[in-house]
Design brief:
This protein has helices at residues 16-29, 32-39, 47-50, 56-59, 76-90, 107-115, 152-170, 180-183, 185-209, 214-231, 235-239, 244-251, 257-266, 273-287, 363-369, 403-406, and strands at residues 118-121, 129-132, 137-140, 295-297, 312-318, 323-330, 334-344, 347-354, 371-383, 389-401, 412-422. The longest helix has 25 residues, at 185-209. Helix 9 (185-209) crosses helix 14 (273-287) and helix 13 crosses helix 14. By secondary structure, it is α+β, with helices and mostly antiparallel strands. The chain folds into two domains: 16-283, no CATH class; 290-422, Lipocalin (Beta Barrel), CATH 2.40.128.30. Bound molecules: zinc ion (ZN). The site of zinc ion has 7 residues, from helix 7.
Length: 424
């Protein structure tokens, strides 16, 4: 499925193993601040380049000796090539319909991260690339100016990976190499999404263009969701679940299946006509408010009220234009409709105000007429794991009963609560 080595491929960079022992030692020997200062390259080039202090990789004995190596900071133009590779990686899905709702990262954030590190090129590096949070360097085993076209995507991903660690370090998130599972949780998840999950959607969109059936599209959609689930069950993410809000804020990474299905259902995927229409039909069948006949049972109105309904039941019914009614069955009276409910992009809003005009009525009739009430109902449709549409929401109901009818002690009642409904 992936067009370049995935999470288990040979190019996956690993920086934790390389420096773990060194940093663990350094932290024991002195304050981490002192380590940071000592390891930072001076204005005339890195300490390693001057040969005064071996760089951490050499200190670990994993590389050839310092005497035979000279690792210079890369010329400024190398950063421009590196940035080009990162941007190429970030933009790889730009022509896909789902790109309207997803991002592998913010170009501005990754540019800032690249500008904030020292970039080195070392063809003898045994890893493809490493980020050293102490020396604040990204070292590449390859020259970003000389990357074959067939390797541009994987090289870009490698640099993106290391810069992701730089962003984490800037946020104080890094364990400073003592907890590999923690440090790799974001990179592992995002790599899995980029390399395994999103390619499934590119196939889904192609199939839609070839007029695949709802069921065929649903199969790919389920596979995509399964891939996301698998991404959350990697060794790193199973132990330390990732936070989508944090990934959006720090890296600009957003891949939310609900947002993607809304793009497909909206008919605004930006794909060719055939695919756009097919996706719209298929995903609307799953999200369409016209299909959203839902019923639910909410909290009972407090029993202090004399007429004491035994619960209430809502039925949602919508027209093609997204406007609709919320039918409210209650008590023994029957039902009345609540007009002006709207359902737009999966969000239901309804406000209803009925003012009492109380006359000579008695009994049930009085209960109905001699009260003034106001309802506010909101709900958001989401897709549950099993593919069903579930609407979760809140309501408030304020009711003013007329003491002349109901007797003293009856005044304003306020009910509020949450509700949930699934499409029938
Ligand atoms: Zn890593």
């Amino acid at each position: 499925m992936s067009r370049h080595p995935g999470p288990s491929g040979p190019v996956r960079p690993r920086w934790t193993t390389l420096f773990g022992a060194l940093i663990a030692t350094a932290v024991i020997l002195g304050s981490s601040a002192a380590v940071m200062t000592a390891a930072k390259p001076g204005p005339g080039g890195s300490a390693a380049a001057r040969g005064a202090v071996p760089p951490p990789v050499q200190a670990l004995g994993e590389q050839v000796s310092a005497a035979t190596r000279l690792v210079e900071p890369a010329a400024p133009s190398k950063k421009a090539y590196a940035l080009g590779l990162v941007n190429n990686f970030l933009k790889q899905y730009d022509k896909a319909g789902f790109a309207k709702a997803t991002a592998l990262g913010s170009a501005a954030k990754y540019k800032a991260a690249l500008n904030a590190v020292t970039l080195k090129i070392d063809s003898r590096l045994k890893k493809v690339a490493v980020f050293d949070p102490v020396a604040n360097t990204v070292t590449l085993s390859f020259d970003p100016a000389k990357v074959k076209k067939s390797e541009r995507l994987s090289r870009g991903e490698t640099i993106w990976h290391e810069l992701t660690h730089k962003i984490e370090a800037t946020q104080g998130d890094s364990s400073v190499l003592v907890n590999k599972l923690w440090d790799e949780r974001n990179t592992e998840y995002m790599t899995h999404v980029a390399d395994v999950a999103l390619p499934i959607l590119t196939i889904l969109e192609k199939k839609a263009g070839a007029k695949a059936t709802d069921q065929e599209l649903l199969d790919y959609w389920n596979r995509f969701n399964d891939a996301l689930t698998a991404g959350a069950a990697l060794p790193e993410t199973a132990k330390y679940p990732t936070d989508p809000d944090l990934q959006a804020k720090w890296f600009g990474f957003t891949v939310d299946p609900r947002a993607i299905s809304r793009v497909y259902a909206s008919g605004k995927s930006g794909l060719g006509a055939a695919a756009t229409i097919r996706l719209r039909e298929a995903f609307r069948a799953r999200l369409d408010p016209r299909m959203l006949n839902a019923s639910w049972t909410g909290t009972r109105i407090p029993e202090a009220l004399d007429y004491r309904p035994q619960g209430f039941n809502f039925v949602l019914a919508f027209e093609a234009d997204g406007k609709g009614t919320l039918t409210f069955d209650w008590w023994a009276v029957g039902s009345y409709g609540m007009p002006a409910a709207t359902y737009i992009d999966g969000v239901l809003t309804m406000h209803y105000y009925r003012e009492s005009v109380c006359g000579e009525q008695t009994g049930e009739e009085a209960a109905w007429i001699c009260t003034t009430d106001e309802w506010t109902v909101t709900g958001t449709a989401v897709e549950a794991d099993n593919g069903r549409i579930v609407m979760n929401g809140q309501f408030t109901h304020e009711l003013w009963s007329n003491p002349a009818v109901f007797g003293p002690g009856h005044g304003t009642e306020i009910d509020s609560g949450t509700w949930s409904a699934s499409r029938n």
